[in-house]
Amino acid sequence: MDEWIRQAEVWVGQAESWIRQQPPEQIYIAAAVIALTILVFIAASCLKSSKSNTIVLSGLSGSGKTTLFHQLRDGSSHQGTVTSMEENNDTFVLNSEKERNGKVRPVHIVDVPGHARLKPKLDEVLPKAAGLVFVVDAQDFLSSMQDAAEYLYDTLTKASVVKKKVPVLIFCNKTDKVTAHSKEFIKKQLEKEINKLRESRNAISSADISDEVKLGVPGEAFKFSQCQNKVTVAEGACLTGNVSAVEKFIREYVKA
Amino acid sequence: MLEELLIFTRGGLILWALSGGGAQASPVDALIRSGLLEERPADGAGFSLDGKRALNWAFDNGLGLVFVAVYRRVLRLLYVDDLLAAVRAEFARVYNPKRTSYDGFGDVFRQLHLEAQARADEMNKFKQAPIKPRPPSPVPVPLSHNDVPKVPGDDGGNDGESQQGGSDGESGKEENSGDPEPKDGGAFNLGILHRLRIKVIPTKDINNVNGNKNNNKGRKKNKEKEGTHRKLDFSDPVDGGKVTDHVVVKKGVQGQSQVDTDENVGDGPKAEGWFSSVFQSIAGGNTVIGKSDLQPTLKALKDRLMTKKVAEEIAEKLCESVAASLEGKKLGSFTSISSTVQAAMEEAILRILTPGRSIDILRDVYAAKERERPYVIVFVGVNGVGKSTNLAKVAYWLLQHDLSVTLAACDTFRSGAVEQLRTHARRLQIPIFEKGYERDPAVVAKQAIQEATRTKSDVVLVDTAGRMQDNEPLMRALSKLINVNSPDLVVFVGEALVGNDAVDQLTQFNQKLADLSAVPAARLIDGILLSKFDTVDDKVGAALSMVYVSGAPIMFVGCGQSYTDLKKLNVKSIVNTLLK
Description:
The complex is a heterodimer.
Chain A: H1 2-21, H2 24-49, E1 54-59, H3 65-74, E2 88-92, E3 107-111, H4 120-125, E4 131-137, H5 141-156, H6 159-163, E5 168-173, H7 183-201, E6 231-235, H8 244-253
Parallel strand pairs in A: 1-3, 1-4, 4-5, 5-6
Antiparallel strand pairs in A: 2-3
Chain B: E1 2-9, E2 14-17, H1 26-36, E3 47-48, E4 53-60, E5 65-72, H2 80-94, H3 105-126, H4 155-176, H5 185-199, H6 201-232, H7 274-283, H8 291-307, H9 312-326, H10 337-353, H11 361-370, E6 375-380, H12 387-400, E7 405-410, H13 417-428, E8 432-433, H14 441-454, E9 459-464, H15 472-485, E10 489-495, H16 501-515, E11 527-531, H17 541-550, E12 554-558, E13 566-567, H18 571-578
Helix pairs in contact in B: 2-3, 8-9, 8-10, 9-10, 10-18, 12-13, 14-15, 15-16, 16-17
């Protein structure tokens, strides 16, 4: 032990004499560079830990996510869309806010394909999300109700969504069509379906090792208000440009 | 006449459509869902949606664009591939990621269309003399953004070859156009694999010969047995007559069925870190992947897949499809071609194995319960794959979820099948509906379902006899059973040990079910149960072959011979095992 201490003292002495030998400017410069690097790292980590500005658009295939994406970005849905094979990923200033004066913070929006085979893509994006918009086809709702509920259930029980309390907006799209259902109806139906799913999935047991979070309160019917993260419902129509509900949601969670 | 030509990004936005405004995207949507996302390679015949229209497509991987042409199938336009290649070259010059409308392209397209038609007419004139059938040549390598595109006139020689390749594909398709085509993925699979089978004749013949031998033996044995079968029928009479054995079997409580345990497989280490992504953005990749660069890596991957017992045709088509999606793509710096190809292949296999629809059986059972009908599952497959054993495992799993199950013994052919099922029923303490041997399975099934409805049973599991896929009378009987009873789920039980035969089994089953059904909307195989999975260590290729051929998801995996050995497929672990 003493050996070590003595060795250390010798080394410290050597270092001191070496430093004394250097011209003072070099030492100042070296110290300044080190301080600067540390400052840069601190600044970078500060910026990173601030709220991310990513909003994820998800939903079943054909519900209108890509149309919504383009409506938010360019203000028009161009010539139409087909089933997406890849995600649409862009950072931009919302189209409706382009005319605003002053600094407007750009928003990073990711439109994840809704096709069942491309579900793993959603898992890659969710951890970075500050908010989630779940797009539902209000016109064709009844036939796709079960699949939509299952998708929503899977999303709401992911640990990354619940732990970070990611807010979810259920956006009922295509309300410009005559046969579209109202958002209250859709909300109730989704709650019912998720309740059924809850019962069938939680009917087993203890051997469940998945990271799923149990939804709702046991013994009571499921309501969106029971979720730990905030879930709201809104309606609109992407083709006609009525997306103000989504924009409000985005602005609420990605501060300008 | 070309009905429609769409240019769209991989993210889904339509950039240009031939028919201007009211572009009908629904045939293209169907193409994307069943063709492109399932990694079907593009070939000369094109994808047929509903028998009336055919679609051909081309990718521009460097820019992330897809070009699709829709035309009436009857017309067999031969210049479509040529036209797509020309359109791709021209559009690449005009394309700008920021721009979303390309109205000026209409004139360019009209000109290209005329040129392509002219070239096709010329080729037709030259085809007076008989020409040796040549294998379809590859589509010309797409030009990168920076190169000066070839003058269309120079393309004449090159495209002439692909033209013939295309026309050979067309003539091959003509022979099969007589087949009645079932809807959806069925048509596409069968068309392609029919043609492939013409190439792969040696192995097919062996299979056929074996099948025929089995048939002959089976028939002879049937005739011999008829005289003596009365004596050998030990089945207990149904109306509670003399019971020969009084063995009381204790209900086997064996613990948790493994279906409900969730396995988490971590992803492999991600190659891209912050460091390499920074360098990529600075250095920028400029090498464009060409077809020759891909060949060695793809060949190595294909061999690796085949050592994992993936059927040869499937491995070939998968490699073709991955090559098509990578050609022309810019190679990132600090990433080698082999790692890019590996990543693309991994993604493709992941996409194929991920189910295209929900496979939550419990939810469907509850839905049927609300409608006060039992949920009927029929197990089909060839001889000896484990239908009865896995049926019992599924029954055990359903029992654990507090559902009432009834077994239906519709295997009225194999000696001991009814007893086997009866023993399972006794151990699990569930009712079984049986009518002994030598009865019409379709009738037995119908009565079983009626009985189950009466006793308010939740699920009916129907066991059928194993049959070879090319045994016509037995397949007809199976088709009748399925169509008469319209089950909620038709599960094909396939064993994991099978190799190339899986492709044949599944295609034939689906085809026979479609052909021999009396109703136009035939029921095909809805799901696959992969049995004997514990006997293959890492040679898990059968899973990929079966899913690729049929498009049906793997619902269960049987991994042992006791009641609890039933699992759900862990897609990530299979992908890792296949590409290790």
